[in-house]
Write a structure and sequence with these properties.
- It is a single chain.
- The protein is of the alpha/beta class.
- The protein is globular.
- It has a three-stranded parallel β-sheet. It has a two-stranded antiparallel sheet with strand order 1-2.
- It contains eight helices and nine strands.
- A hairpin with a 2-residue loop joins strand 8 and strand 9.
């Protein structure tokens, strides 16, 4: 619910949103993008039968005028070139941006979803379970992408139940339970056991 509010998918019933010390209104996805907030959903929200480059530019296609500007057509060469440049920065291998998304691995699909978010030069990226269902090698690739974003000054809200990932890439951890914040600490000041206790409200021995 919180992700959907911050991304503009639904409107909050109450409370306020502050971004960089200023109160902001987010009532639709465009409001979020105007603030530099991009969301990458767990489902990726990709169109399987379309090639990579059309997924990256989905809903905001590059066009070029012909016949003296009377008609505009898709500028596919430009979209292919820009898509390739975006994906190369993510350092996950692709054969071609013309390849259909249905033929990609889980890690590659996640990279396409991330690449689409990068188009807007975001200030904050919300990642909803970005490592869910990925192989170990692909998980590490996503971890490295997150580290690269951090080094470039892009903030990441990383939602995950893969607790090892939290301690691998996060600077601080927050636990929400029942719609309430029950824990928030710098990652160096907590432990896996404490996070689990906060998640379940129980005193569990983690082995």
């Amino acid at each position: 619910t919180l992700i959907k509010i911050l991304s503009g998918a639904i409107s909050a019933d109450e409370s306020k949103i502050f971004f960089e010390g200023q109160e902001i209104k987010i009532e639709n996805p465009q409001d979020a993008r105007n603030q530099g907030i991009e969301t990458i959903y767990q489902t990726f929200a990709l169109v399987g039968n379309l090639p990579i480059y059309l997924n990256i530019f989905l809903g905001r296609y590059r066009v070029k005028p012909i016949l003296g500007g009377l008609i505009k057509i898709l500028d596919e060469k430009r979209m292919e070139k820009e898509s390739w440049e975006i994906l190369q920065n993510l350092k996950i291998p692709f054969n071609s941006v013309k390849e259909k998304v249905d033929h990609l691995s889980g890690g590659q699909r996640q990279a396409v979803a991330i690449g689409r978010a990068l188009f807007f030069s975001p200030r904050i990226i919300i990642m909803d379970e970005p490592t869910s269902g990925l192989a170990v090698k692909e998980v590490e690739q996503i971890h490295q992408i997150i580290r690269d974003f951090k080094n470039k000054g892009v903030s990441i809200i990383f939602i995950t139940h893969r607790l090892q990932s939290i301690f691998t890439v996060a600077d601080r951890v927050m636990v929400l339970r029942g719609g309430q914040k029950v824990m928030e600490k710098p990652i160096q000041e907590t432990t896996l056991e404490e996070v689990v206790r906060a998640m379940f409200g129980l005193y569990l021995k983690v082995t």
